[in-house]
Structures are given as C-alpha cells and as structure tokens.
Recover the amino acids of this structure.
C-alpha cells in the first residue's frame, strides 16, 4: 500500500485506478472508496477508505478550508481485551512517534468525536487544496469572517467570477502551511459497519476509527482551530476555564450574541456538539490573554479594534465599562465608533478627513449633519453629491465643477416644474463638448397619449466657467441625436401627421435643427419637410427645405449626414422627471447623472 504522504496528493479516481492495478476489491460510495476485504492493522481486522470529506476532523473555525482528500482505517477487535490493548498501543505510538509537543484536541464533528493529534506541519501539498478553487461559490469552504476571503473581496472585481490571479496573490502573502492531523475515536460497531466486515466473525461493540487529514492553514488559523476546542496553542497548554477570570462575565452579555464559526450554525447548536457558554469563554480568554480574535483567526491591531470586538459581540463599551446604548446609532457598532472615536471599522484606522467620515456614515444610512437616518437612497445620494462631491453610484469623488453644474440644472428644473403647463417634464444628460460636465436636455408640455399635434418646449442647458448656458426651442414631438464630445446635437424628427379634410390626404411633417455648442448654443443648420400620402398610404409627393431653400429629399438627407448624423436612427431617450398635476418629483438631475455614469458616458 502507498505511504500516507503519497496518498495525501491523489484523488478518489486515482485511488480507484491504483486498486484496479493491484487487483484489490473495493466499493465506491459517491465521493469515497473503501476496500471490501479486511486487512490487518496492529494485528486486528481493518477496513481502509479514501475520499473527499467535509468536517471530519472536528469543527471548522473561520479561516480554515473544510473540504479535503483524506483517508481512514476502521479497526474491529475480536475481544474486549484486544480492544483495550489496541487503544493503549495506538495512544503510545501516536504520542511517542508522531506527536512532539501538542496534546490531542478533544474534538467533535459531524461524523465522529475523539482525539485529534497534530502530527505534521510542512510546506508540502498546500497547492493541492487551493488549485481546486475554481468558482466564487468555492470560497464558501472558508469561514465568513475569513481574512483570505476579505482580502480577496477588497481587491477583486465583483463580477461573479473567481479571479484566480488575485486569489493566489492573497494566498501567497498569507504563509499557508499544510497541517496534518490524525483523529482517533471509538464509535459503536453499528449495522452499517457489520455489513462491511466479514459476517462469519463476531466483534466487540466498539471499533477504532483512525482518520488522517491534511488541511492548509496559517499559524493564526491553527490557533483558532485549536482554541475552538479549549487548547491555547500560543502558550501550548489546555485552557482551564475554572481558573479563568473574564473581565466581562457571561451574565453581562446578551444570550447567543456570539455566533459559532460555522456555516451550518443551527445544526451544530441544536445537536450541542460544542458547549456554547464554554466557547464564548474561550473567545473572551483569547481576547483578554492574547489580543487575539478567535472568531476571525487573527490578532487584533489596537485598542479600538478590541473595543469594536466587545461592542459587536457583547454590546459592551470597554472604555466606559458598561453596556453601550446603540439605539441612537441605529444599532450600528460602526456608526457608534465613527461618532465617538473617529474610527473607521472598514480600514481599522482613524478617519483621515471629515468627508471620509461623512461618506462612511452615509453608507451606513446615517446623516452626519443632522444625526438622523436618511429616509431613502435618493435623499442620501443627493446629500452626498451636493455636500461632498461623492457619487454613491460609482463610489467615487467627482469634481466640484461637475456638481455645481448638476445643482444648477436641478435649480432650473425646479423652477420649470413650478411654471410648467404640460403633463410631463422629461430629461436626459449627454456629453456634447470635451469637458467632463454633461449637458442637459429638458422637454416641457409633452402631450402623453395624444395624437394631436402640439408644441413642446425643449431646453438645452450647459454649464461652463461657473455659468449656465441655455437655448429654448419650440417643436412638436422630439427625438434627438448627438455626436459625443463634438459639440453637435441634432434635435427634431418625424414630428407628426394630419389628414387634409378636403383632399383626404395624409400629410406627414417634421424638421431637424442642428445645433453646435461652443460658448453658447448656436443653430448651424435646419431642414423641414412635408410628405403627402394618399388614402392607401402610398407616397404622392413632398416638399423639402435646407435652411429655408427648396431641396430634394435626397439632398436634405445628405445635408444631415454631412454633419455626421444618421437620420434613420434618431431615438427618444428621456426619463420622466415630474408629473404636473401631482407636483411630485419623480427623478432628479443627480439620478440622471448616475444613470449616465453607469452607462459608460456614452
């Protein structure tokens, strides 16, 4: 049979091929394989299995991968004397030959409970685990408050795909080693095991279960793993809770405020695989004795991070030595520390400026100016942009001049709303010239759900050198096309039609007005047309003009195209801003800007 080191690197498929080559009997059960005939181990009957397992060496603290290839022996004994002798010999072998310093952890797990021995810590084989991570979902194999996952999320793009380059960079920076464990337990000889051992023999009521598992961990993560089971790996001793005097006694904290570090928390708690109050005391022990966060598997950096930890899990202010009242801060520890200590819980450092603090708090829905909660996302976005030039959509600080322009457009819009005559005001933002301040188009008096021709008022707005530039136009129904950054916009389109009551002919009319923006809006070209159709919709004739002079339809279209426009693809792309009879704000100029940014400034 192959050695433990050789087996640690193979897959279940490789193992099946190896058994085939040796003409050995085996059975496959989903993700693992076991031999169907008994071998001898320490002179007793043994079944050997190999495969991928979850959580078979005990609990999974935050920061520890919990799926790995591993193998185990199940040993059955002929008599109780053999069983006792086997226990004694195995314990002696492990403690003398494999385990050098650490004592076994008293672990519990989904499949078994027993003693877990750390038998090796080396650089061998860490890549075998990390190479299996191919998708974002694979990161669920780690704890939720895991430094690897946090560091990856801070650098990688949130596109739903795993960026292996970023992940491997983080892994390389964290000094992972392969920790090899041997877990020994003595479960009951149940019916399933009876089916796997020879049925012509009788065995004792208990078997010996030996599992070997290798897992990648950092040194700090191993401290968390061992600490979960009451072992202080920093000082190399078991934790005696009877002698531990916590600064904050358990009757001071809210019951079940500290979460056990597992994804399937409710299952573990319901089955009582670990004592909840003991675990809380272990967490407090490591924080009090070592400034170490057992839940994240990391040392804390300073007293403010420690204060955050006590606030988060116990709602306790260690500076005041009393419960913290978070009600004024919407129950948020992050908001509490930002206001009271100028502390940024995201960077674990003081805020560098008042604007950084305001933006941080606004993301927590807290208005630094008033001390109250924002009523909605729109209110928050407008407040951040106007006061701190922060675009909450792109999460970037933008130029003050851009904000001033948007505020000026919104002031114009509010004045327009108060005096509007039509049913709707629609608006859009576009980039006409080569600065970073978008131009604004507003339309008043759009006759919604009406086919009757009626004039609309179109307002073109630009903001340059601290002043607003505007142009007002009167057209029936509007569409437009702009050449981004060129300063040109073409406004108009097929604007309507009517039936001549005498001839019963259908007359379709329209116009395009070509406008150039420099230090003002200037009309540089204009075309008009009327097309006449008979009662069957067949084209009869038409009249066309370029800048007031007669032209053919082809000449008119070529004139428009000479500026770079495509008259066949004009669009109507506006967002409803106000409904006049209700006088309600439906959208804001700032929302239009955020939509423009999300669209890539097209």
């Amino acid at each position: 049979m192959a050695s433990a080191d050789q087996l640690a690197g193979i897959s279940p498929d490789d193992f099946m091929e190896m058994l085939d080559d040796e003409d050995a009997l085996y059975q496959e059960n989903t993700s693992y394989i076991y031999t169907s005939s008994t071998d001898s181990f320490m002179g007793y009957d043994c079944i050997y299995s190999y495969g991928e397992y979850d959580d078979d060496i005990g609990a999974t603290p935050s920061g520890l991968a919990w799926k790995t290839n591993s193998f185990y022996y199940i040993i059955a004994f002929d008599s109780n004397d053999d069983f006792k002798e086997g226990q004694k010999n195995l314990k002696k072998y492990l403690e003398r030959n494999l385990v050098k310093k650490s004592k076994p952890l008293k672990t519990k797990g989904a499949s078994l409970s027993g003693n877990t021995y750390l038998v090796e810590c080396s650089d061998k084989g860490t890549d075998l685990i990390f190479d299996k991570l191919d998708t974002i979902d694979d990161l669920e194999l780690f704890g939720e408050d895991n430094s690897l996952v946090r560091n990856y999320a801070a650098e990688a793009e949130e596109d739903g795909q795993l960026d292996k380059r970023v992940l491997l960079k983080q892994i390389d920076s964290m000094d992972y080693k392969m920790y090899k464990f041997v877990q020994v337990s003595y479960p009951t000889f149940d019916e399933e095991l009876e089916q796997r051992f020879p049925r012509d023999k009788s065995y004792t009521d208990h078997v010996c279960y030996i599992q070997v598992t290798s897992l990648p961990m950092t040194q700090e993560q191993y401290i968390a793993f061992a600490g979960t089971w009451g072992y202080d790996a920093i000082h190399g001793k078991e934790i005696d809770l009877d002698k531990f005097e916590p600064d904050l006694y358990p009757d001071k904290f809210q019951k079940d405020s500290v979460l056990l570090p597992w994804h399937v928390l409710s299952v573990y708690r319901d089955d009582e695989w670990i004592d909840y109050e003991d675990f809380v005391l272990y967490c407090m022990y490591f924080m009090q004795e070592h400034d170490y966060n057992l839940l994240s598997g990391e040392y804390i950096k300073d007293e403010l991070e420690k204060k955050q930890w006590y606030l988060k899990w116990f709602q306790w202010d260690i500076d005041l030595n009393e419960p913290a009242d978070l009600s004024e801060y919407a129950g948020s520890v992050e908001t509490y520390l930002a206001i009271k200590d100028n502390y940024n819980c995201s960077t674990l450092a003081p805020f560098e400026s008042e604007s950084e603090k305001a933006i941080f708090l606004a993301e927590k829905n807290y208005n630094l100016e008033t001390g109250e909660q924002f009523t909605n996302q729109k209110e928050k976005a407008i407040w951040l942009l106007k006061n701190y030039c922060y675009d909450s959509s792109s999460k970037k600080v933008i130029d003050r001049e851009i904000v001033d322009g948007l505020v000026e457009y919104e002031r114009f819009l509010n004045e327009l709303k108060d005096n509007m005559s039509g049913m709707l005001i629609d608006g859009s933002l576009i980039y006409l010239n080569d600065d970073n301040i978008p131009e604004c188009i507003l339309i008043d008096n759009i006759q919604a759900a009406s086919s009757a021709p009626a004039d609309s008022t179109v307002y073109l707005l630009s903001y340059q050198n601290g002043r607003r530039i505007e142009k007002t136009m009167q057209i029936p129904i509007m569409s437009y096309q702009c050449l981004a950054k060129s300063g040109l916009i073409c406004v108009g389109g097929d604007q309507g039609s009517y039936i001549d009551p005498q001839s019963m002919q259908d007359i379709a009319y329209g116009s395009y007005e070509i406008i150039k923006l420099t230090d003002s809006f200037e009309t540089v070209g204009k075309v008009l047309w009327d097309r006449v159709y008979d009662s069957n919709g067949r084209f009869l004739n038409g009249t066309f003009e370029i800048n007031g002079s007669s032209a053919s339809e082809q000449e008119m279209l070529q004139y428009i195209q000479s500026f770079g426009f495509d008259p066949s693809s004009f669009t109507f792309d506006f967002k409803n801003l106000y409904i006049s009879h209700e006088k309600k704000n439906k959208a804001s100029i700032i929302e239009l800007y955020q939509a423009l940014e999300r669209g890539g400034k097209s």
